[in-house]
Amino acid sequence: MIIKCIPETPLLEEFKLFDNPVSLFGNHVIIDHENGEYSLLAHLMKGSLKVKKGQRVERNTRIADLGLSGCTSWCHLHHELRESAEFDCHGLPSSFSRVSPVTDSPRGDKRLNPQSGMVVITQS
């Protein structure tokens, strides 16, 4: 279930970051998986959210478009699996299905536990 939607945060200037640390994420959504895990999806395109707070989402639900919001220099999706929806909570290990690491010889594993900084592509 969607528990937080921040749809209209612009790209931030460095001096404003300390006023509101959550603004680092820019436009973002937090999903409660209802099993003690929460997903944060951040740096989404301004005005692109397709979901609302309280809405239930399932696999393949379009949530938003990638954008350039918050504290970032390039367009990307920032994903964190977390223990709560609070800003200063601990992260949890993530694993993904139907992805391959971007290397010379993609493994195409059924489940991949990405390492920090790893770039992955989805398999269609």
Structure description:
The structure is a single chain. The protein is an all-beta fold. It has two domains: 91 residues, Glucose Permease (Domain IIA) (Distorted Sandwich), CATH 2.70.70; 29 residues, no CATH class. It is 0% helix and 27% strand. The chain has no helices and eight strands. The chain has a four-stranded antiparallel sheet with strand order 1-2-3-4, with no helix packed on it. A two-stranded antiparallel sheet has the order 5-7. The chain has a two-stranded antiparallel sheet with strand order 6-8. It is globular.
- Give the CATH class of the largest domain: Mainly Beta
Main pleated sheet? 4 strands, antiparallel
Show unreliable segments.
none
Strand arrangement within the widest β-sheet reads: 1-2-3-4
At the fourth CATH level, what is the homologous superfamily of the largest domain?
Answer: Glucose Permease (Domain IIA)
Counted by DSSP, the helix tally is 0
Radius of gyration: 15 Å
What is the element string, with H for helices and E for strands? EEEEEEEE
Multimeric organization: single chain
Q: Percentage of helical residues?
A: under 10%
Count of the separate structural domains: 2
Shape: globular
What CATH architecture label of the largest domain applies? Answer: Distorted Sandwich
- The CATH topology of the largest domain turns out to be Glucose Permease (Domain IIA)
**Beta-strand content estimate:** 25-35%
